[in-house]
Amino acid sequence: MPQTRTKLFAGPRLRQLRQRETLTQANLAEILDISPSYLNQLERNHRPLPHHLLQKLCERFGLSPAWFSNTKEAHTVQAMRETMADPVFKNASLPLAKMADAVLTNPDLCAAFLTLYRAYKFEQEREDNALLPTPNLEPYETVGDWVQQHRNYFHELDCAAEKFYESLDLKNGLSEALKTYLLDHHGLHTQQDPALEEGGLVWRIDRHRRTILLPPDQPPESTLFYLAQIIGQRDQTRLISSILRREGPKEKNALELGRVYLGNYFAGALLLPYKRFLHAAQTMRYDIERLRRHFGTSFEQISHRLSTLQRPGMEGIPFYFLKLDIAGNILKSFSANRFSQARFGGPCPLWNIFRAFATPGQVQVQLSQTTDDSIYLNVARTVGHEGVTYTDRPRQIAIVLGCTINDAAKTVYADGLNLNDHRLVVPIGPGCRACMRDNCSHRSLPVSGRMLDTGSDARGVVPYRALPEKP
Question: The HTH cro/C1-type domain covers which part of the protein (predicted)?
Answer without folding.
Answer: 14-68
